[in-house]
Design a protein that fits this description.
The protein has one domain. About 85% of the residues lie in helices and about 0% in strands. The protein contains 9 helices and no strands. It has helices at about 5-35, 40-50, 55-80, 90-125, 130-135, 140-180, 185-195, 195-220, 225-260. α4 (about 90-125) packs across α7.
Length: about 260
């Protein structure tokens, strides 16, 4: 009786495959540029950036606004017991800039854009469109994976800025109503509480999460098997894997940052 592979072995195999997807995509794009040509059509890239960035602003803004509002309200009532409600602006500012902004944005983009990428590439894979593209002499990785991964990679930090801004707006609004903290005082206190390393940490996480989401979603789409049912299973697996990986790398980043800065 054949033994099934262990979960650890399967995870390592998938991880190595994702890394090789990144390497092979970079090679295809590099070879194209070495011949003096564009790595892919910029019209496709701009289409994906519009879809990833502009198309996600409403969702990111709405969710972040309510999370910031709720966080300020709940923490403020607890701090008010000790007469320390003035700490709410700094608490919300640091939390979103360094942690919640990149994490929540990454989760929402993985669910919205990652699932779409997997479904699209999965449908192309089962209908043999990817093989047809390769048969025409077009590198499928630079043509299909490159624009999508770069779009998420570059647009996720921009969406994190939107998330931080709307979260702070919600927190400032509820703080003015519930704790009588003026808007100008809220903003000044939040900015004074944040350090450069908080902004750098959030920015690094944003780029890393964008790369992870793009690679995982494209990898799941290109490895679909089993027809239409396989596309559905791959889409579900893509969202779960991307979100889990983002949270795992977020924890790892926090451990490294704490070890480096001792904060």
């Amino acid at each position: 009786m054949q033994r099934s592979p262990s979960p650890i072995r399967t995870t390592l195999q998938h991880l190595s495959s994702v890394v090789w997807l990144l390497v092979d995509t970079g090679k295809e794009m590099g070879d194209r540029m070495m011949r003096g040509r564009l790595p892919f059509r910029f019209s496709i890239f701009f289409e994906q950036t519009d879809r990833t960035g502009v198309g996600s602003i409403a969702l990111i803004s709405l969710v972040s606004f309510f999370i910031g509002l709720t966080m300020a309200l709940l923490t403020g009532y607890q701090l008010q017991t000790f007469g320390q409600e003035r700490l709410v602006p700094g608490l919300v500012g640091i939390s979103f800039t360094r942690e919640l902004g990149p994490l929540m944005t990454g989760i929402m983009i993985a669910a919205r854009i990652g699932a779409a990428y997997t479904a699209e590439l999965g449908t192309m894979t089962v209908s043999e469109e990817v093989e047809a593209i390769e048969a025409m002499g077009i590198g499928p990785l630079r043509f299909l994976v490159g624009p999508r991964v770069l779009a998420v990679f570059f647009l996720l930090p921009c969406l994190v800025v939107v998330s931080n801004f709307t979260a702070m707006s919600g927190a400032a609004l509820i703080s003015r109503w519930a704790f009588d903290i003026p808007f100008t005082r809220f903003i000044d206190t939040a900015l004074d509480s944040m350090l450069i390393r908080d902004i750098i940490a959030g920015t690094i996480k944003s780029f890393l999460f964008g790369l992870i989401i793009g690679l995982v979603s494209c990898y799941k789409g290109l490895t679909v098997k089993g027809g239409a049912a396989g596309v559905g299973n791959a889409t579900t697996s893509s969202v779960v894997t991307a979100i889990t990986t983002v949270i795992g790398f977020d924890t790892l980043c926090n451990i490294v940052l704490v070890a480096l800065f001792d904060t």
